[in-house]
Amino acid sequence: MVDISNYELIHATNNDCDLVFKWANDKDVRLNSFNSKPIKYEDHKEWFKNKIESNDSIIYLFKAYGDKVGLIRLDKIESNTYVINYNIAKEHRGKGHATNLLKLIKDIYKSSLLIGKVKKDNIGSVKAFLKAGYRMEEELDIYVFYSFAKE
After folding, report:
1. What pLDDT digit, counting tens, does each position of 4-58 carry?
2. Model pTM?
3. Which of 9, 25, 37, 116 has a CB 3.0–4.6 Å from the CB of 60, allowing a cystine?
4. Contact between residue 87 and residue 29 where contact means Cβ atoms under 8 Å apart
5. Main-chain dihedrals φ then ψ at residue 141, nearest 5 degrees
């Protein structure tokens, strides 16, 4: 269990669109994303609105010690199964926030299967998932992480 007293997940709102856009277009985030092209603002606005309004996606902002330091998105792929996408703001990386975020979401969604897909050269995310206790499987050019063993 994560000591949640210093961490908080809050639902993203339309007011968070610009902040999420800034984080998503960070050069390292783009490099580690499966689609590494820069995101156009108009495309982001439409995407963000659709995600916020979707019943199959949940976007949380992650707060550490009162500061917004990143986000996590859960996209439902079937009942109680979600794909995780997350990022930590550039100025907050290297402080263990990703590991704590992944532990926290795993604790909150303990009855759900959470799946993370990571490029093999994204060492920071690989380490964060492993430290957070996710199970790793290797595929062709990615690692897939599971919050618990698949049946």
Report:
1. 678 999 999 999 999 999 988 777 776 677 677 878 999 999 999 999 999 999 9
2. 0.90
3. 9
4. yes
5. -125, 15
